[in-house]
Amino acid sequence: MGRPLPGAAATLAALLLAAAAGTVAAARAGGGAPVRMYDWHVTLDVAAPDCWQRPVLRVNGQLSPTLEVVQGEELQLTVYNDLPSDMPNVHPGLSVHWHGFDMKGYPWYDGTAYVEHCPIQVGSSFTYRFRVDEPPGTYMWHGHAGNDRVDGLAGPLIVRPKPGVAQPIPAPQYDEERVLFIDDWWHTTGAAIAMRLNRPFDANRTTNTSGAWAWANNPQGILINGRGYYGDCKLNAGGVNTAINCSVDQYWVPPGASAVQPWASAVNPGCAHENVTVEAGKTYLVRIISATSLLYTTVCFEGHDVTIVAADAVPVEPIKASALNGCVDINSGQRYDVLLKADQQPGNFWISVQGQFRPGSPSGYAVLHYKGVNETLPATKAPQPDSKQPWTLEQEAQIVMSSALLQAGAAGSNGTAGAAAFLKQALSPMPAATLNMLLNITQPLMNQTGQLRWAINNVAGQVSPPCQALLDLVKKDPRWIEKNLASPAAYNQPGSNASTLGKEEGRSGKVEVFLTAADGAANPTPPPVYPTAGTHLVPLKRGDVVQVVMQNLPANSNNGDYRIPGPGASRNATEQHPMHLHGHHFWVLGSGNGMYDPAKNAAQLNTKNPPFRDTATLPKNGWVVLRFVADNPGLWIFHCHLLWHEYMGMLFVLAEAVDELPRRPRNLPPCPETCIYNAAPWTKPYVQEKFGKSGFELP
Ligand SMILES: [Cu+2]
After folding, report:
1. DSSP reduced 3-state for 176
2. Within the chain, which residue ranges are assigned CATH 2.60.40.420?
3. What's the 645 CA to ligand 1 centre distance in angstroms?
4. Nearest by Cα to 119 from 638, 670, 680, 681
5. Where in 71-200 does DSSP place strands (E)?
6. What class has domain 182-389?
7. Strand 511-512 versus strand 532-540 pairing type
8. Rounded distance, CA 485 to CA 217, Å?
9. Distances from the Cα of 418 to the Cαs of 165, 303, 427, 510, 541, in angstroms?
10. What whole-number distance in Å separates Cα of residue 527 and Cα of residue 558?
């Protein structure tokens, strides 16, 4: 077995593969890095990937196309906003984020709307342009404006090795590659869900015009490589070959929509399970990518024991699924490369993807199909993960840095010369922390609007300059942050809330800063105050080594307000959160139950071979400790990768060495007259007043 796609063949093969995703041309700029150019036309189409027709965002007519790039090449990717002109009234426009890329030296192109650039408006375009200095591996691209990701704007992103350059350690041996791109899927649009989430949660604040708060609820289906049957619920119950006979009354139906399943039509010629075809005797690298908006999932391969070899594009110590719980747990935003040997009697085997933690969440199924046998659904019961809980603590802690990579780093191997930027960091000894950041997570009600939010250190984050991109403001005036600092005393009044509606609409421009000295993780009791909503920035200097201690506090611990709509109930649960950091990878030192206690837990942290990742799980009712180096001037968002949690404020922005920002590109998208931020109170009158009468898909 040779390594796949060696040398120049890799580039050619990647080009051929990438053609489907819209490659325009590959050129070489005078003596510089090769340039890879793409045109992406984003359209709103009606499609039925899981058999249910709904509006879907597609790229060049495809749902979730794969983008391939080569380490060392320059990517020039032009995004055309070809959405319908009546959509923008509740749609902010488009942006694309390169999930897992550190983007060192290219902060302007990281793609978080209103942080790096204003969204691309209908009828206009923007060219992302940067050199790919990321190690070969598995990543993801996705929309990072509004809720585009949940409407389908996401896909695999694969970095191929630079031809002729030795990597620090050899790639694992395999014959061919496959991708499992996992997404949870709703039968309504992201905007419709977001509007309901923004209505008052507090029943006392609900009015006739505001409408009542409603949760996104469980997704209706799970897509694997953009395909699925939402009726797979019968398989989940253990039935065989009854995949499409579910009763529609189990599913949430959008108001006014028909509950009749549109099984076949011109735009839905037939939905199907994804067939992952393999040849007996061959070994496959399967790139598992989770783009989910809500679900933590468990991926099981019937009859095959896969081996995890990389996490978030960094090699890990190989570990078999059988040494875990038999399956591979993957949180939103994470990627695992696994080796699968087609070593069974040729046939058809289930690949099951099961939503965890949320009762009633759906399952998705694909078929591992051996070449040469008939393509049928397996006659066996699809594998289900066992019911051990909590999953996160069991698996993520067992996934550690590759010992071969650590040895290569310690030996100062010549191979490190070819290592891309953040892999070089993984090859170096982990530096001692110089700064501690304690992040308390709560789920408060906003006192004035009654909106339900996720807060980090009592601030529900939003990006709220007056219709400009934050990076623009900071580039023009590096002192913008200190000039706009809000004194915590100005709004954190005990027992009350000075936060105004205007502030919650995102017009205050206030900034909250929180840092503790590097004197060990303090664990203060949060003050009994109501939360605020606003821009949440944390300034960092170049070279800061930041140790992040993040912990889950019950609901609204900050003010003891556990109200829920309706009498007699209380709200004190916490949830798991996949935390994702832009512009960096971090060492994951450990996680555990309860509150982080430095006296007890510090000694348990893994400083020997911690994994180096970009997305890690904060466990339900627990804590996680991360460490990263501030070495990338820019504004980088740190957020929960569950789309609804991020939308509800679980984010802040690192303002890193902002006096060293690179030159601003001239072609950044202009900002529109009216900007749409996550905390805008999206009631029907609000939308009509701000954006006109023809609300798109108003629930
Ligand atoms: Cu979350």
Report:
1. strand
2. 7-170+682-691, 182-389, 423-660
3. 5
4. 670
5. 74-81, 96-99, 125-131, 137-143, 154-160, 176-185
6. mainly beta
7. parallel
8. 37
9. 6, 38, 12, 43, 28
10. 6
pLDDT digits (tens, 9 = 90+) for 546-580: 888 888 876 554 444 444 443 334 456 678 999 99
Instruction: State the sign of the Cα–Cα–Cα–Cα dihedral 195, 201, 206, 211.
Output: positive
**Distance from the alpha carbon of residue 535 to the mean position of ligand 1, in angstroms:** 18
Residue 592 to residue 576: CA distance in whole angstroms: 12
Sign of the CA dihedral running 593, 594, 596, 599: negative
Instruction: Locate 329 and state its tokens.
Output: 């747990």
**Which residue matches tokens 């890990």?**
316
Q: If phi over 0 gives left and psi between -120 and 50 gives alpha, with beta otherwise, what is residue 554?
A: beta
The CB density around residue 627, as the number of other CB atoms within 10 Å, is: 20
- What CATH class is the domain 7-170+682-691? mainly beta
Contacts of 431 (CB under 8 A, 6+ apart): 545, 629
**Three-point CA angle 237, 240, 241, nearest 5°:** 120
Tally the residues of the chain.
699
**Rounded distance from Cα 118 to ligand 1 centre (Å):** 24
User: Which homologous superfamily does the CATH classification assign to the domain defined by 423-660?
Assistant: Cupredoxins -  blue copper proteins (2.60.40.420)
Nearest alpha carbon to residue 540 among 584, 578, 492, 577: 584
**What is the ipTM, given to two decimal places?**
0.88
Q: Tell me: the pLDDT tens digits for 163-221?
A: 888 888 889 999 999 999 999 998 888 888 888 888 888 777 777 777 788 888 888 88
Q: What is the CA radius of gyration of the chain?
A: 24
Ligand 1 centroid distance, CA of 455 (Å): 10
Contact indicator for 174, 279 with CB cutoff of 8 Å: no
What is the per-residue DSSP string for 476-545?
H-TTHHHHTBPPHHHH--BTS----HHHHTT----EE---B-SSS---PPPPSB--EEEEEEEEE-TT-E
Q: Which residues neighbour ligand 1 (ion) by CB within 5 Å?
A: 577, 640, 642, 645
Per the DSSP assignment, residues forming a β-bridge with 549 are 438, 625
Residue 453 CA to ligand 1 center (angstroms) comes to 11
Report the distance separating Cα 349 and Cα 352, nearest Å. 10
Which residues touch 303 (CB under 8 Å, ≥6 apart)? Answer: 344, 349
- Both tokens of residue 232? 């797979």
